[in-house]
Task: structure prediction
Amino acid sequence: MSVIAQNLQAVQMRIARAARAVSREPHEVSLLAVSKTFGAEEVAAAVDAGQTAFGENYLQEALDKMAALRSMLPDTAITWHFIGPIQSNKTRPIAEHFDWVHSVDREKIAQRLSEQRPGHLPPLNVCVQVNVSHEASKSGAAADEAAVIARAVVEMPRLRLRGLMAIPEPTEDVAQQRAAFRQLRELYKLLRAEGLPLDTLSMGMSGDLEAAVAEGATIVRVGTAIFGRRDYSPR
Ligand SMILES: *Cc1c(COP(=O)(O)O)cnc(C)c1O
Result:
């Protein structure tokens, strides 16, 4: 078994254990493999091990990888999730090539994605990114703005509102991890109570997925624990 296959199995076991600890079913949590900075070969190894959903942050890198995988694995359906910051001049290729976008944090971006989503594709699945711990990165909308964006997205014809996403400030303190994820879940509950059709809480990464699952994550986004440490030095 490849290292990537072993790592995937270990991550699935972490998810299952974390789910059972809070009386959730492991299948309620799906694993998004974050393949940014890794190549098509690594993605293919993960596909070989049964993984079909992949998350990417950098547009050009993702488009190159998608093209490579289409020729390497022409018969395999891969679901691509865009999870990185979105510049407004890059919305068209995102709308054309991805199945999901987790990082919508402005109404204007949502509007462009809806206008640019090709008619022959199903509506683009969207999560609104919320800044839950006032992280310095500035990605993510404040909770009240996120609610406004979510209400607007529901009305957009080529988008399908799915849920909320957050990347809390990294901390080793599990209580702090859980408090941040709980904020996202509270907003999710509030919006559902309002009647918005949300079914997705995208939260938890390699270092804090247990806390996220305990607080209700339905998608965990895991890179390092599957593919190893990322190397950002120029190649
Ligand atoms: C890189 C990234 C991840 C994966 O983080 P790891 O710590 O490597 O698991 C998850 N979500 C987002 C938005 C990311 O950019």
